[in-house]
Backbone:
């Protein structure tokens, strides 16, 4: 058994949730926040059998896409002023960051 953790941008969250349901894949969705942009994300926790991992990954890949976004970095506090960039920069956001980990034991009550 595997646990798939997929961190996706909120813009892709609803589409991924709908596509998982269409495929009969059960998931738990948690609200989360990114560290760099401080933007809203959703983390999906999906428990699945080893042989279904590729199917789940295909659904995630088809549902989440990366895009470019212009952001203005927040000004830092303290002694990090020398590395601060005071103008907007273009960064790649979206897509999905996915972790697949082994599950030692699974119980459902």
Residues:
């Amino acid at each position: 058994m595997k646990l798939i953790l997929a961190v996706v941008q909120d813009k892709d969250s609803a589409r991924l949730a709908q596509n998982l349901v269409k495929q009969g894949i059960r998931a738990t969705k948690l609200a989360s926040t990114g560290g760099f942009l401080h933007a809203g994300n959703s983390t999906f926790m999906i428990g699945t059998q080893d042989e279904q991992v590729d199917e789940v990954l295909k659904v995630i890949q088809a549902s989440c896409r990366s895009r470019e976004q212009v952001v203005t970095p927040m000004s830092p506090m303290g002694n990090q002023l020398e590395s601060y960039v005071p103008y907007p920069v273009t960064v790649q956001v979206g897509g999905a960051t996915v972790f697949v980990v082994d599950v030692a034991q699974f119980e459902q009550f």
In short: The longest helix spans residues 10-22.
